[in-house]
Amino acid sequence: MATKQNPIKKYTKKDGSTAYMFKKYLGIDSVTGKQRETTRRGFASLKEAKLAYARLDIDVAENGIKQRSSNRAYKEVFEDWFNLVYKTKVKESTYWNTRIIFDKHILPALGSYNIKAITVTACQKQANAWCKDNPNRYDRYINYAGMIFKYAESIGEIQSNPMQKIILPTPVESIEGDEPEVINFCDRQELLSLLKELKENYPFKRFVFFSLLAYTGLRKGEALALTWRDIDFKHQTLTVNKTLAVGKNGTALIQKPKTKAGVRTISIDSDTADLLKEWRYHQKKHIDLLAMMPSIEQLVFAKDEDNGLMNPRTPQTWLDTLYRKNKSLHQITPHGFRHTHASLLFEAGASMKQVQARLGHSNIKTTMNVYTHVTKEGKEETADIFGEFMKNGKSLGQSLGQNKNPAQ
C-alpha cells in the first residue's frame, strides 16, 4: 500500500533560519482550464504549518474553490501577485517599499483597467509619461508594472506581456549648464567644516552619528542597527551583521543585510573608537536618568525618549536642520557620507578591492560605478598630470619620485 506523501516541507530561508511550507492542489481553474495549487510558506513551526494546511482543507471542502473572474482589473491581478508570489520571495522592507511604488505610481495609471484590454500602445504611452515625469526612476516603474503582466501571462490570464514589447523611452537630456550638478559627497575640507559645525552647535549624538558614517562608510540603516556588542574596542573593529529597514506603514524593523558581502567586520581608527567610547558614557547617563534597565543588545543610536529603534528618516531631519541654519555648508544626504568616505579613500590611495570590502559591495562593478567620483583636488590635478606628461614625458607620480607602475 502506497504511503501518503507528507505535504509539509522543511526549508532554509535566506537568513539561514528554518521554516516550513506546503503546496496544496485546489482543482481545475474554470478560467484557464489548468490545474490550480497554492503554496504557503514562512511557518515558524511544523505545528503551525499543519494547522494552516488543515484550515485550508476545511475551507475548500466547505466553500469550494474560489474561482477567478475572467475579466479582472490590473489591480486585482496585482493583489494576487503581491500576496501569493512577491511577499514569499523578498524581505519585508523590500515588499512594502515596492507596495508604495505601486500605490503611488503604477496602480493609479493602470489599476482600474481590465488587464486583458491593456495594449502595447497603452503601455508605451504610460512608459513615456513615467520617463517624462520621473526620468531617474521611470525604468523601475516599467519593470515593476511588467511583473504583473508576466504573472498574468504565466497563469494564462493574458496571451502575452504588452510591457515587454514597448520601446524603452530615453529621458530628454538637459542642456549642460541648465541645472547645477548635484554632488552628493564632500571633499576633505567640506567634510571637516560640516563635522565641526555639528560638534560645536548641535547635540553630541548627531556629531557622533555622522562622524561614524564619514569615517566608516556605513549605510544609515547599518549604523542605526548597531549595538555595542558589534564594536570591539580592544581590536578596534566594528561588525556589520544587520540593518534598520522600513516595513508596513513605516514601521522600523531589523533585518539581515541584502547580500553576504554586506556582513563584514571593518577596522576603525583610534579617534573614532575614542569618540564612540565617549558617546557610550553619555548614553549610559541618559539611560540611568530614564530609570531603564540596560540591555545586552543596547543600540548605539536609540530614541532618546524610550531607548527604542530610531526612525530611519531622523538623520535626514537632523541634516535639514543643520542646512537651514548653515547655508554655506555643502549639502549632502546621509548616504552622501558613504560616498564621501569612498571618494576620500580613493584619494588617499586605497585600492578598488579595499574599498569594495570596506563598503560591503558584493559586486566590484557597484564600487566602480557608484564611487569612482573625482574629488575637486583630483579635477584640478588632472591638468597638471597632462601638462607634466607633455612637457617631460613623465607622469605626475614620476615627477614626484614615484615608480611608473605603482605595483613595482
Automatic annotation (TrEMBL):
Keywords carried by this UniProt record: DNA integration, DNA recombination, DNA-binding
Keyword DNA-binding among UniProt keywords: yes
Tyr recombinase domain boundaries: 181-384
Keyword DNA-binding: yes
InterPro entries (UniProt xref): AP2-like_int_N, DNA_brk_join_enz, Integrase-like_cat_sf, Integrase_catalytic, Integrase_recombinase_N, Integrase_SAM-like_N, Tyrosine_recombinase_XerCD
Superkingdom of origin organism: Bacteria
Family (UniProt): Belongs to the 'phage' integrase family.
Name of the protein in its database record: Tyr recombinase domain-containing protein
Species this protein is from: Candidatus Enterococcus mangumiae
